[in-house]
Amino acid sequence: MPQTQCTFMSKSTVLNSQKVWLAEAKKSISLHVAGLTWDDFAKLAGIEPRAMKSYRMPESSSDYRKMPASVEAVISELVAKYVSGARVVAKVSAKDEGKVLLAALAALVVRQAREAVVDGKVISGVSMVEGSGFGLQARDREAMAMVSRHCLLNNLPDYGSEIHNLLYQCTKPFKDWLPIEAVRSNGLEDSSFIEREDLMPTPEAEEWSRNYGDLVQTLEESLFAKLKELLGRINKEQADLYYTKIREFVVRHPVCRMEEVQEMGRGLSSVLAMLVQQQFYEPVPDAWATEVNAVKLCTHCGNAIKKTTFGLMCRTRACASSKPLQIGGSVSPSQLIRATRGISQYWIEPGFDEIQMLDHLKRLGLNPQLYPKSDLVDIAFGPVGVDLKSYVSPETLGYKLQSSIGGLAMYADKWLVVPDWLIRKTPAYLDRLRSAMGRPDVLCLGVSEAVERAKAYGGSVHA
Fold it and tell me: What is the largest CA-CA distance in the chain?
């Protein structure tokens, strides 16, 4: 194939249209890859085709999505790879390379979790063969190669060479295995991408994976897709009530008896009740017994107690981090069911502090609403909307909210609340969060401070 001069330039410095920039990138690669379709181009770049389509929409379209800088960097590198002699003006700095690595690694973690948790597949170290249905995809190998490269450049062991070892490392804080500049500059030293107990992606992993462009639906959205589908079939007001009822019950009952779920389900449609029973709960394993045929339960949150090298501890991490151990009784494991690990990660862990704050506000007579309008915010009372977030990295949380504050935008008083226990263990958490977020319209508070401030609303909000 004759060599062709490439004129592909930086989107930010030369072209003012994302759509045109992508068209030029595809055109440059098409000179060397015959019959390249937009779906082919998306796969080459490791981007979900539906995400690529949204990047190509006119900016005036409701389906338009701004392309993350890390995705632009990946496409720029792709052009350089396929076009001989290409001149890429948008050079990727070491700082940007680190961000691309973190985004690619997060996307790898979320993909593997989705296959294991949602699709029930075994994580395998072999490359995927067409029709096999399992194994590592090309983009998984690329992410692993990025990790290996940064390990070698920083005189670290090659953690990217084997998938199971890499995923194990992702259960540790980054400072313990990948202490590179991108980790430090983004406040991720104490963060991990996989929660050690439930082996689910952390909030940081979910958020960073969005910056790699290959995921259009988060793992959380995948897990609750059926619930949202069923609620979408009934009128909005009833759907909102059902959503709050189901979620509050699950948060307050991380471990319970089947009869309790069945009793709650009598106030739902039969299909919704069956969904909760079959997909949100599973039998408690015998190994959870801390003494002969007995599972000890926590008085504070209702979860099971576990044995650790440091003694007995509640299985709800938020509870164990903020409350003294208090055992409320023992039950045979055969009589109990537990929330599945996806439900535990996305509902029960953040829900512990949400319920604690809700109950405080109720005692103040403020008539708070929990998960109003099917989770527009976590709690609302009067003019106040409250979102409670439990990110280990305040920088990641702040960057997430820079461009969009979600349902908080619907409230006059916007409160972003962080658990007290997380603030205590993280130096200057709220200051770092405010600096990263850069939004003076959002008030950043700890739970105790938020409850204290809520007292001022007592005269204007009636029970």
Answer: 78
Contacts of 153 (CB under 8 A, 6+ apart): none
Closest among 449, 252, 427, 208 to 356, alpha carbons compared: 252
Contacts of 226 (CB under 8 A, 6+ apart): 275, 279
- Bridge partners, 307 (sequence order): 312
Q: Are 165 and 66 a contacting pair, CB within 8 Å?
A: no
State the Cα torsion 276-277-279-281 to the nearest 10°.
Answer: 110
Q: Which of 4-8, 40-44, 123-127, 168-172 has the lowest mean pLDDT?
A: 4-8
Rounded CA separation 381/417 (Å): 14
Flag whether pLDDT at 1 surpasses 90.
Answer: no
- Work out the angle at residue 110's Cα, subtended by the Cα atoms of residues 106 and 111, and round it to the nearest 5 degrees: 115
377, 411 Cβ separation under 8 angstroms: yes
Phi, psi torsion values for 283, nearest 5 degrees: -60, 145
| 138/175 Cα distance (integer angstroms) | 28
Give the separation between CA 377 and CA 365, rounded to whole angstroms.
Answer: 20
Q: Which amino acid is present at 409? A: A
Spatial distance between the Cα atoms of 278 and 258, rounded to a whole number of angstroms: 11
- Residue 52: per-residue pLDDT: 86
Cβ-proximal residues to 255 (8 Å cutoff; 6+ apart), any chain: 284, 295, 297, 302, 303, 304, 336, 337, 338, 339
Task: Give Cα 365 distance to the centre of its chain.
Answer: 33
For residue range 418-454, list pLDDT tens digits in order. Answer: 999 999 999 999 999 999 999 999 999 999 999 999 9
Structure tokens at 344: 């535990």
Instruction: Give the number of other CB atoms < 10 A from CB of residue 372.
Output: 20
Scanning the structure block, which residue is given the tokens 């995705």?
A: 71
**Rounded-to-integer distance, Cα 254 and Cα 399, Å:** 31
| Distance (Å, whole) CA 215 – CA 42 | 12
- Indicate the residue type of 449: E
* 144-155 per-position pLDDT tens digit: 999 999 998 899
CA 118, distance to chain mean position in Å, is 15
Say yes or no to pLDDT of 234 above 50: yes
Give the other-Cβ count within 10 Å of 125's Cβ.
14
Per-residue pLDDT, averaged over 29-56, amounts to 81
Look at residue 379 and give its three-state secondary structure: strand
Q: Would you say 295 and 330 are in contact if contact means Cβ atoms under 8 Å apart?
A: yes
Which residues, 6 or more positions from 76, have their beta carbon under 8 angstroms from its beta carbon?
8, 10, 25, 88, 90, 92
Angle separating helix axes 349-363 and 236-252, nearest 10 degrees? 100
What does the angle CA 396 – CA 402 – CA 408 come to, to the nearest 5 degrees?
105
